[in-house]
Amino acid sequence: MGHSSSAHGENYINCEKGLWSWLTTVDHKRIGLMYMITVMFFFFVGGVMALLLRLELFAPNTVQGVGQVLKNGDVYNQVLTYHGAIMVFMVIVPGIPAILGNFFLPIHLGAKDVAFPKINLASWYCFMFGAALAIATFFTHKIDTGWTFYTPYSIRTGTSTVLMVLGAFVMGMSSVLTGLNFIVTVHKLRAPGMTMHRMPLFVWALYSTAILQMLATPVLAITLLLLAAEKLFGVGIFDPALGGDPVLFQHFFWFYSHPAVYIMILPAMGVVSELIAAFSRKVIFGYTAIAYSSLGIAAVSFFVWGHHMFVSGQSATAGIIFSFITMLVGVPTAIKMFNWVATIYKGSVSFDSPMLFALGFLFLFAIGGVTGIMLAVLPIDVHFHDTYFVVAHFHYVMVGGTLMALMGGFYYWFPKMFGKMFSETLARLSFVFIFIGFNVTFFPQFILGAMGMPRRYFDYIPNYEALNKISTVGSWLILTGFLIGLYAIVQGIRKGEKAPMNPWGAKTLEWQTSSPPPHFNFDVEPVVTAGPYEYR
Amino acid sequence: MSTDNITHTHSAHVSHHFKDATQEYDSGKQGIWLFMVTEILMFGAVLVGYGIFHHLYPAMFSEGAKQLDWKLGFINTLVLIFSSFTMAISIQLIQRNQIKKAAMALAVTILCGAIFMVIKYFEWTHKFHMGFYPGRFLDMAKTHAEHANLGMYFGFYYCMTGLHGLHVLIGMGLITWLLIRTIRGDFHSQYWIPVEGVGIFWHIVDLIWIFLFPLLYLVG
Amino acid sequence: MAANNHKHDPNVLHPHISPTSMYLKVAAALFGLTILTVVAHQFHHQLGAFASLVAFGIAAVKATLVLLYFMHLKDDNNMNRAIFASGFFFLIVLLLFSVVDIATRVTEVSPL
């Protein structure tokens, strides 16, 4: 196809200049980059919180003051809350869909933009406004409820619950608008020949995610509004003093927040499908199975939320039902794992840095997933609940899964996004530090949890000291890894070699347009005649 | 392809990223329906809570409902249904290029929304005056409440009607925007998707009230 | 080419325009049903447990009328119908599982 405008060197970055042109852009690629910058900033803030927590837990506070980093337990609770809330609502939920999804979903489909470009921009402003509300609590009464805002504590506490939940509400709207855009774009804006079964698996994953965003987020929205009303006007719905039910709050909360776990992980699975196909130089094994297992995971996710509530006072009957259904999640997830491994099998695998992150994902997600099945078993969960075992489990899924995929996807698409190459050596080095650091940090927490160390505590008995020290050292390794990664990115943008159109030899549509893409993605609308992974 | 001007005085305007007017219209329509699903789930979740607690405390809910004046709820239902009718008819008028009549219909819709809100305002202030505050703020002595947790009923009452009223206000704002654009001549037989979108939103607001009326005023 | 292809030109919209009489009939039906709801409410002592059933039955009929005729789901495509129905489906899921918990919780722990 022709390259008239790109031949002149015009692309989406240099077609308009000035900050104003960015703040008013409706170009999905630019909006993706704006999300990237903001999410990276919040990741930095949330990361600093995590480092502080680990620093505090480096040693028990045996003698008054010794080993104590934070002022007191209240400060620890606040840092813990902000770490959780920032990482969930501002980093991992928007992460892959809003950055990589915004940038690549329309290009993957051969479209010029998402269906509603203005709404796409509005979703970024919603996100910023919601984030501002949430951050504002930091300067009023710092919130200490944990990111789950459980009643009755969140109602009784004197901290800024209302402001915080309104922030989460507005960010939820941003999430809904992104999901709405993606669904309509997938349904209506595919290029000629781009059938549903020729869409890249990343798009399938984003599509399933978008369905979850549409169906689950409204329930969180109303739950948070009711919580705010409860705090302000004492309406009584979640208040036992008036016959209300705090456990009902948990039902409503997890009706969103369990699907939200898949809002976080499904896009990561989509990225990994792309990476594994591209770097194995092979038609992906079981395309249909991977595509529909995304929808399967999305569907099952609505029936399992009660497994977060096994010790909440929910009835044993409900617990048993939720426990059994939860194990079903393992089926579509395992289908994906086996298909990825089968794709790698006898492929011409090249271990470029994105692939390293994909393999890291497979390894860490396998551990996170299998421990998830353990926790799904009701009696085992009753034992492990609120211990570091759970902390380790969900960090293996959220960080080991989502962040690994985000990093891998980011390196993979970096040449397309910026038209430059990054230093492969630095990227690999960052992988080594993040991967090793991650395991050093979180593997000991499985053991700590099994030993009975409770989560969310400011202090611990001396028996847990050695493993906590190892864990804290690991957090520094992760920090090093991300700093190296950041340096690789900045250096790549500033001094990187010019990227070719298709540095990895991949087959999806984004590699058939120039790097970086022109303003409307393609100079000539592509006509699709084959599937996305037609490697020989 | 350029012949629409011969038979149609207006041609659809198509944004840059759509192929044709049909694609743009279908996309817009689907987007609106998706958004309506979020509205249904949002209101629906409160209804789920209402259903559960109504089942647990039927006598208390019955006592609460007796405190409301069903006549006002009845009038408001009729007002909203009428506004839904004028909203629906405005789209049909625009599709038939009867722009002036359409603008009138939209103006009547806004007026109906305002009447609804005024009645709602008097209902609320009257309740406040009687001491029927939500939840734990309910004045037990002044209201002579039989059930100690009557406040929960009013918690639901204020949350549901408040959220609904907020939607009426948002809808009125959106319809005012439509009215301005209609008078300006933006809409015609080939372009009316914003009117239809806001219309569907307005009907959802009506739809929710259709359920709120028996739920809040007529139970027990 | 214009005259023949006109009907298939994707740049010309052909909305399904319902006659004004249809809107009037639906509005009249909605008014009537609202009055019926109130009339039925006057007999709620006689109706007993059926009173709320009647009220919600009528509300459901009214909602269906609004959906089909005012919101034109009658003339819409199946995708939009399915999208709208999905909302109700997941509401039922939310209700069902919450009720399973609350209905069994008390009987398990309460001695009464």
Beta fraction of the residues of chain B?
under 5%
* Percent strand of chain C: under 5%
Mean pLDDT of chain B: 91
Structural class of chain C: mainly alpha
Task: Give the overall shape of chain B, derived from the CA principal axes.
Answer: elongated
**DSSP helix count of chain C?**
5
- The third-level CATH topology of chain B is Four Helix Bundle (Hemerythrin (Met), subunit A)
Q: What would you give as the CATH superfamily of chain B?
A: Cytochrome c oxidase, subunit III, four-helix bundle
Low-confidence stretches of chain C: none
What level of helicity do the residues of chain B show? over 70%
Instruction: Count every helix of chain B, treating DSSP H or I runs of 4 or more residues as helices.
Output: 8
Written as H for each helix and E for each strand, in order along the chain, the element string of chain B is HHHHHHHH
What is the residue-mean pLDDT of chain C, rounded to a whole number?
A: 85
Largest sheet of chain C: none
Overall tally of domains of chain C? 2
Count of β-strands of chain B: 0
From the helix content, strand content and strand pairing of chain B, which structural class follows? Answer: mainly alpha
What is the helix fraction of residues of chain C, given as a range?
over 70%
Distance between the termini of chain C: 82 Å
Rg of chain B is 21 Å
Describe this structure in words.
The complex is a heterotrimer of chains A (536), B (220) and C (112). By secondary structure, chain A is mainly α. Chain A has one domain (18-512): Cytochrome C Oxidase, Chain A. Chain A has 17 helices and no strands. The radius of gyration of chain A is 23 Å and the shape is globular. The model of chain A has no long low-confidence stretch (mean pLDDT 93). Chain B has 220 residues and is an all-alpha fold. Chain B has one domain (20-217): Cytochrome c oxidase, subunit III, four-helix bundle (Four Helix Bundle (Hemerythrin (Met), subunit A), Up-down Bundle). Chain B has helices spanning 4-7, 21-56, 58-67, 70-95, 99-130, 140-143, 150-184, 193-217. Chain B is elongated and about 65 Å long. The N and C termini of chain B lie far apart (63 Å). The model of chain B is unreliable at 1-8 (pLDDT under 50). With 112 residues, chain C is mostly helical. Chain C folds into two domains: 12-76; 77-112. In chain C, helix 2 runs antiparallel to helix 4. Chain C is flat, with a radius of gyration of 22 Å. Chain C starts with a helix and ends with a helix. Chains in contact: A-B, A-C, B-C. Chains B and C meet through helix 1, helix 2, helix 4 and helix 8 of B and helix 2, helix 4 and helix 5 of C.
